[in-house]
Specification:
This protein is of the alpha/beta class and 296 residues long. It has a single domain, classed as Rossmann fold, CATH 3.40.50. The chain has 9 helices and 11 strands. A 9-stranded mixed sheet has the order 1-3-6-7-2-8-11-9-10, with helices on both faces. The protein has a two-stranded antiparallel sheet with strand order 4-5. The longest helix is centred in the last third of the chain and has 19 residues. 39% of the residues are buried.
Length: 296
């Protein structure tokens, strides 16, 4: 493991851990992936054991450090970083295995070095599986179940999980690159992507985070289920609040109804081609334009 890029503050004793990574930023539409990983960190009591060296991977003008007050007096600087957390003693939901969690912003620089660092980390701790989580904006309605697509080297794994294989082509973020590096490094790897409504990009999606965690649970098949009760309550609040907001806008209500009809008309289980953000914006603009012409 290249110590130029990773600083270990301690060395945890881990039982064939599952390494799970989720990043804020481009890969994290509606904060679904980061919310999912943060939930795991809290519920599993994972503790910090190191971090990637931020100076090597971040442009501090793009991802700025934060000034924090300690006890209202002392000022300190919190630097952007990708922190490493680990469980201890095994996790029942992982069948007694431990977990390594990587959290933080998408790096700005040296993606290849960063991804190789993750591969080295996974190999050094004898990781049994690497899972990357992401979320993207798609033409899906908030009122229907969240779709999760999967990338894996083994097509049978996707079939067994009853997931849609991703057919996305286009720009990618660190999550997509990391998945390829891990798979090419000979490690078992799965990448999960939740689709969130593109008309709600700034609203944190608890339903998408919940679906990512439930998909992870199906994958690892541990002896106990992850406690997601708090996230389930947050998801219910999300649905109520979004439904109320949408109902106040007749154009948006009509657009959502169109998405619902399209969703319902699709054959269950068929994979979807996910359009680009520009395509989604054009589609929405065209719909609103046509709607305006009808009302004139």
């Amino acid at each position: 493991m290249d110590r130029r890029y990773i600083e270990l503050e301690r060395r945890p004793e881990l039982n064939r851990p599952v390494l799970i990574a989720g990043f804020t930023g481009w890969n994290d539409a509606a904060e679904a992936a980061s919310l999912a990983v943060d939930t795991l960190r809290e519920k599993w009591g994972a503790e910090r054991f190191g971090a990637f060296v931020g100076e090597e991977f971040f442009d501090y003008q793009s991802v700025r450090p934060q000034i924090k007050l300690i006890e209202g007096v002392t000022r300190t600087v919190e630097w952007p970083e990708n922190a490493l957390y680990a469980t201890s003693g095994g996790v029942e939901a992982l069948g007694g295995r431990d977990a390594i969690l990587i959290v933080g912003p998408e790096p700005n620089f040296r993606w290849r070095s960063f991804c190789q660092g993750v591969v080295d980390l996974a190999q050094e701790f004898d990781a049994s599986l690497v899972v990357t989580m992401g979320a993207l904006l798609a033409d899906v309605p908030h009122s229907r179940p969240v779709a999760v697509a999967a990338n894996a080297q083994d097509p049978a794994l996707i079939e067994n999980l009853q997931l849609s294989a991703s057919r996305y082509e286009g720009p990618t973020g660190i999550t997509g690159v990391l998945h390829r590096y891990v798979a090419e490094g000979g490690l078992s790897a799965v990448s999960f992507w939740a689709s969130v409504p593109h008309y709600l990009p700034s609203v944190p999606s608890a339903p998408a985070a919940l679906e990512l965690l439930q998909t992870l649970q199906t994958l690892v098949g541990g002896n106990a289920t992850l406690d997601t009760s708090q996230l389930e309550r947050t998801s219910e609040d999300y649905q109520r609040q979004v439904a109320a907001a949408v109902s106040q806008d007749s154009d948006l209500t009509s657009y959502v109804q169109m998405l619902e009809e399209r969703y319902d008309a699709q054959t269950e289980g068929d994979p979807k081609d996910l359009p680009s953000g520009d395509d989604l914006a054009s589609e929405l603009e065209q719909f609103l334009r046509e709607k305006g012409d009808e009302e004139q």
